[in-house]
Amino acid sequence: MRCVSRAVLLGLVCVTLLGAGAGGSAARPAKGTGGIITASCRDAIGREPNGVQRRVILGVVSVPPRYVPQVVRYQHDGWAYWSKWGLSIQAGNRPVRISVPKAWRKRVAIEWGLGGPVSEQRFEACSPPPTYWNAFAGGFSLSARACVPLVIQVAGQSRTVRFGVGRRCR
Prior knowledge:
Blueprint: H1 6-20, E1 36-39, E2 46-49, E3 55-57, E4 61-63, E5 67-68, E6 72-76, E7 79-84, E8 87-90, E9 96-99, E10 108-112, E11 120-123, E12 132-136, E13 138-142, E14 146-154, E15 157-165
Parallel strand pairs: 1-11, 5-15
Antiparallel strand pairs: 2-12, 3-4, 4-8, 6-7, 7-13, 8-12, 9-11, 9-14, 10-13, 14-15
């Protein structure tokens, strides 16, 4: 049996409890069902001035780095792996939509805030000031380590972003 660090185990327990806790409005869809959830502003775990800006997409979504090395074996909801990594969304903007391309929906799911894993996640626009970023806990559920594409949409703009989750993208 592989050892898992206390921090990773605590993170998994927190995510599990957040998903099952009061206020969680979405059921956990089965693997590959194409479920959609909407995260509200109150689902954010924190609000930070100037945000935790790693890789900012379309000017308002701060996502994990290109390579996410931490992946743990995690048999849950039909998925074999879990990689915990949060994201932040700048306050005072339009709603944000993040989705897994259809061809990938049996290989990867996402979840930030309450609910999930799902193939599409929406985030409400949160009130200003725009210098604040709302942080959401969550990450990726996977069938195998992969170079994962996600489509991020904000105000009519769309961008596909790749994440090397446990495996670097070429």
